[in-house]
Amino acid sequence: MNPTFRAMNYLLLVLILLVSGGWVVVTRTANEFLIAFIFSFLLFGFLRSKIKFASVSPRSFVLVTFLILVSFFQDGLLDDKEVAVILKMFIAALACEYYFVRRVDFLVLFVETMYFVALVSLFSFIVVLFIPTVLVPIDGEYSTAFGVGYFRSSEIARFGFYRNQSFFWEAGVFGSLIGLAYFLNEASLRNRRISYVFLATMLTTFSMGAFLIFFPLALYSMIRQRSRSFARGFLLVGVVCLLSAYYYPDLFVGILEVTFGRSFSNDASLLVRVNDLVLGLQASGGGFFLGRPSGDYDSYNELLLDEHGYTKGDEGGITNSIVWLIYKYGFPFAFIYLMVLFFAVRRYKLKNSYILFTALVGFLMIEPLSVSIFWLMLLGWKPIEQSRILSS
């Protein structure tokens, strides 16, 4: 492959990751411009050829159709946020087609890209850890180290140190994507060096949510490679732990607080995620089948006000992607979304695909990534059958 085209493949994916969960999502620094640039780059790239979408699963188009119908049934129109989701679905389909036409395995490209991102982030994290004066402020919240690593001032107030978040808007997003890259590497390339780098990077994120999803699944995967009978026992222990957490939540919360040194009662980040799961599901009842128009968080805010004395406002959103899908578009749409994700993972034809699917759903439960361009590419991507290795 031509070195220029190879570099463009990586650059395009980095830009997609940046607009999917990068710090520009929150600061709005050129976010719309980057999305427009990606769209234009892809569209003009296909002007001389026919776009057949040979790489995209038909189920993805079913998802788009269902989204449009649900949005119209809600209030008789498509508002700007719903149009934005449809546009991102179209961009994701174009991006899948771009890589497919160039015979590039998008999943392997993602692993290799995240490997490079992990190495750079580890370097910037270590430098900032020992020499925090290298940080250059961007705004009141974000600072950067060398333009490749980004850090939040609120981390110092909460933890007493910066967490590794690379160029993403917070460490949990980075931890989720590093975890996903780890499981994809284990299921396809199985490169030990890459796995070790991802493991080290995951530790530097100090993301409680990512840890709770990543480490049990990673440990189960390692055990299963050596003894399937022992892995079944480990799985049984995990089920018992989940049931115990449901029936004895105070004990479970206490264990987590001792383990991670973070309190559910006064840690705003943890409290938000718990509320988005529990109260978000409760508030979804009134719009169980068709959801609600964009920006309508009245039902959720009423519960927040009653339970905790605060509201998120119309732009607050719900961080839990699965709960947000149920709240915004209704349970049927969320169910179809998960089914499309499930069949997408099966279509990848990777080793231990059920572990990968569990990881995908788990990471969506802690971060609002479900309708990001990158995640929509995961839903639609139809792998190249001939090879799982990038062209050289």
Question: Mind sketching the topology for me?
Answer:
Elements: H1 3-21, H2 24-27, H3 31-45, H4 58-75, H5 80-101, H6 106-130, E1 136-137, E2 142-145, E3 149-152, H7 153-159, H8 171-187, H9 192-205, H10 208-226, H11 228-247, H12 249-260, H13 268-283, H14 298-308, H15 321-329, H16 331-348, H17 353-364, H18 373-380
Antiparallel strand pairs: 1-2, 2-3
Helix pairs in contact: 1-3, 3-5, 4-16, 5-18, 6-8, 6-9, 8-9, 8-10, 8-17, 10-11, 10-17, 11-12, 13-14, 13-15, 15-16, 16-17
Explain how this protein is built.
The chain is mainly alpha-helical. It is 68% helix and 3% strand. The protein has 18 helices and 3 strands. The chain has a 3-stranded antiparallel sheet. The radius of gyration is 21 Å and the shape is globular. Residues 386-392 have low confidence and may be disordered.
What oligomeric arrangement do these chains adopt?
A: single chain
Largest sheet: 3 strands, antiparallel
| Largest sheet: spatial strand order | 1-2-3
* Structural class computed from helices and strand pairing: mainly alpha
The H-and-E topology, N to C, reads as HHHHHHEEEHHHHHHHHHHHH
Number of helices: 18
The general outline is: globular
CA-to-CA gap between the ends? Answer: 5 Å
- The helical percent reads 55-70%
Q: How big a fraction of the residues is strand?
A: under 5%
The number of E-state strands comes to 3
Supply Rg: 21 Å
Mean model confidence by pLDDT = 88
